[in-house]
Amino acid sequence: MSKRILLVRWTQSGQVAAAADAFVTPLRAAGHEVVERVLSPVTPYPFPWKMKSFFGVFPETVLGRPDPIDRVPTDGDFDLVILAAQVWFLSPSMPFQALLTGPDAAIVRGRRVLTLMVCRNMWVVGWRKLVRLVGAAGGDVTDNVAATFAGSVMASYFTALYSMLSGRKKVGGHTIGVAEDGLARLARLGSVLADRVANASPGAPLLAGEVTHTLSYPHALGEQIAGRLFPLLARLIALTSRPGSFLRGIWAWFVLAFVLSNVFGLLIPCFTAWFLFGRRIRRWLDRQASLPVR
Hints:
Structural class: alpha/beta
Oligomer: single chain
Strand order of the largest sheet: 2-1-3-6-7
Largest sheet: 5 strands, parallel
Helix content: 40-55%
């Protein structure tokens, strides 16, 4: 039985668009109707970004104070909503925050939701925030798929930032973003989804038993620690500066230094903790990356 599926996405570099297309192409091939909604910020975000503007939105992103987006049609009957989102500063990107806290949050109300997270590597904290926003808007997240960038976790700290600030998708012959094998994996999961969504029971996971994400556990532990530090810094910056102000530009350099200090400062403690308590940490992190989110 064919279903009507809503895909909501927003992209700058094209990574989310490519991942979402790979994921939903099997759904269309199976005869399901896929309707797309592309979010549109009232004031478009720059791409490529300038360093000051990118790190300047850190406080509003972390504290959940998004800039507005254009209205999104919410009418129609859908059997599944797919949110193809990215992570900014361990939070959902601002357009998705604006959608789920604004007048068009009804787009998920009373509907089954699948989240498709497309990001560098650290997706768990931002995804959990997204799930809570969906829940507050009346939606029910039953599945999550994470599409992370190719290459080592450490290298991607810098290649992803390079891509955001330059607009380029390659460095030294290395492709920045989701690799071909990653897109092929999304297509395979989309094929599984196409079969299961046709006869799915209400509220039941659609991709149960499938490997829908991976974790680098020491780095995921560092993400959990940083996710508790970021709001403290964000509140301080928000209290002392306005978006676009000269002082906010000064703070942006501090945010860059703070993020880099987390990258290197948490490295040894997290790997040491993993070496000593790996089994316990793994169980805890697996719970953090799983539904339901409490």
